[in-house]
Amino acid sequence: MAKPDEYKYMVVRTSKDKLPQVAGFLQTAWHKVAPNLPYRGFLQSDLIEKELRMTQGFKSIAFFLAIVTLLLSASGLFAQISLNIDKRSKEIGMRKVLGASVLQIIAAVNRRFVHILLIAFVVGSIFGYLFTSKFIFQFIFKYHPDAGPAPYIGTFLTVVICCCIIIGSKVYRAATANPIERLRAD
Hints:
Elements: H1 19-33, H2 44-87, H3 89-97, H4 102-140, H5 150-176, H6 179-184
């Protein structure tokens, strides 16, 4: 038996129909054992419900931040691609004049961005893994299922698809434009 000043929690199992009587008995017994400390009884289901709501709130915040991050990244990528295409407009026009297809032009422009995306994915995955494994899963969620590689692969595919859509649309527009106008522009 622990000393009365070391009492913290006691778990009692009872049926639902006896719950009010058991709660009254526990409160009376608590006041006999520790009269100076208030009785704070609670149901396990209430505690689980509170934790589930907190987890759902954390999940909603994380999802919102992921969407905001994706939108900010996509807008930054769009700006970077627009600047790159404007700088390389004469090169795109020359490639078009020399007979390059639209797909070849898209591949030539995409090559550099794919390298940047791969480097960003590796660095981001390392930091993301360290953050989740060392902070979130050790301090916030002690008991959790293993994440595995699925979130990282899903993130990478989402970013690659968004980049392909952004890059493809901008380069397609530049590659299908009249190459003479591209070559005349200063």
